[in-house]
Amino acid sequence: MSFKALNQNYSTVYTLDEWERNLIHVTPYCPVCGVVTEKAAGSTLRKTHFAHSIQNTDCPTINDNRRKYLLLSPVGLDTENGRDLINWTKLTCGTCIRNVRKFSKDVLSFKSFRIC
Asked: Which domain of life is it from (predicted)?
């Protein structure tokens, strides 16, 4: 049961309330597994939520699918890979921004890409 869904057109996750106000005609997807979801009516014990449209999905958000993960032990913080990921992200974003500036002849800036 999820109260959020993914809008694949914009790669953005929205709450159920936001979806009902603005995206009622857009197909919602599970933000965890990417499978199509649909709005499921709540009962006296459950609130209205997004539910997977197909049966037998392997999504870990479904209680029955969590069993295979229960025996996994927690791992420690991997600071080395974390630093590598941060450096890769900075390098990739920097390259992207430099290319945008080059192709737009410095008309576009980083602020131009702000979504909200």
From this structure: Bacteria
Domain borders along the chain are 4-69, 79-113
Determine phi and psi for 38, rounding to 5 degrees.
-145, 160
- DSSP for 59-99 reads -TTSGGGGGGGTTPPP----HHHHHHHHHHHHHHHHHHHHH
Query: pTM of the prediction?
Result: 0.56
